[in-house]
Amino acid sequence: MNGRAAVFVLACLAFTCLLSQPAETYLKLDEQVGGRRIDIKWKKVPVRYFVSDRGVPGLTSSQLQAAVNRAFRAWEDVATASITFQFVGFTAARPGDEDGLTTLGFLDRPDLQGVLGATVFVLDEQTGEILESDVFFNSQSPWSVAANGEAGKFDLESVAVHEIGHVLGLGHSGLGNVEVRNRAERVTSAEAVMFPIAFDAGTIEGRRLKADDVAGVSELYPDANSRERSGAIHGRVRQGDRGVLGAHVVAFNPQTGFLIAGFSLNNQGEFDIGGLQPGLHILRVEPIDDGDLDSFFHDGEMVDVSFKTAYFGAIIVPPGSGTPAVEIQVQPK
């Protein structure tokens, strides 16, 4: 930690359910500074990282490093993003040590049953700059690095892709479906690797980024031309004469089938959705009335869930700029 004040943020991937109904969004992590939100992101690239020299039974530190490298590459290969990474070497340091090193590795955390992995940040709380970001994978869970997955074991690469999204400053996405059978919860589909619940053991679904993930990282770390090629939708969600805080605003592209979204993030109900392909979009606005609000918002924020789902159609998104501000009125439940 440097001489400026710093904070820790914890983000987890679990195989216990945090959401009971589907929802859609990419969400950037942020901090409140002087009454405004600032993005949490790296200011210096490439992001330099270390891998712990400790393996687990049946999986060596070299296999861990190879899986982690592939996961970093999934984000680095996004054509519209400028983020890069550099593997520095193996280390005896443990993820979570406040040592100035960004370290990924295994920890034995029996106290966190149901949690596969977590990301811890050290931040400059005045600027939002990430100074250090460690990832641990819980050795209490069975792990696999097999090319096609392995029955009964969780895919290390998939979980690493999710956690590296947090390392970059992305929050959880709600773009997925969870079902409950015999009191057991499982993911049936997910359209973002940043969905907070893991697929069943044995699957490798989380290795490939989806449109929601690509939009998120491209907004945080745009390449030189990405904002000229993409577009954005700006507006407000209102119920009567007041703004709605915490509404999902989902942009659907009927040509591609992509869903990319954001939240209204202040008491005026204002939202911004970037990273959209130019062309026709339809908006859906919905409350987060069946989800875990702590997965998306700061403690104490008065998120409004007292309205009905609404639609706002036929918005043409131009390249290189945002649409004129749209105002979406929702009705009380």
Terminal-residue CA separation: 47 Å
Give the overall shape: globular
CATH class of the largest domain: Alpha Beta
Instruction: Give the CATH architecture of the largest domain.
Output: 3-Layer(aba) Sandwich
**How is the main sheet built?**
6 strands, mixed
| Rg estimate, integer Å | 20 Å
Low-confidence stretches: 1-7, 16-27
Can you list the strand order of the major beta sheet?
Answer: 1-7-8-6-4-5
Work out the number of β strands.
Answer: 20
Percent in helix = 10-25%
Count of helices?
Answer: 4
Class based on secondary structure composition and strand pairing = mainly beta
What's the mean pLDDT score?
84
User: Beta-strand percentage?
Assistant: 25-35%
**What is the H/E string?**
EEEEHEEEEEEHEEHHEEEEEEEE
CATH topology of the largest domain: Collagenase (Catalytic Domain)
Question: Looking at this structure, what is the CATH superfamily of the largest domain?
Answer: Collagenase (Catalytic Domain)
How many domains make up the 3D coordinates? 2
Folded structure, characterized:
This protein is mostly beta strands and 333 residues long. The chain folds into two domains: 10-218, Collagenase (Catalytic Domain), CATH 3.40.390.10; 227-329, Immunoglobulin-like, CATH 2.60.40.1120. It has four helices and 20 strands. Helix 1 packs across helix 2. It is globular and about 60 Å long.
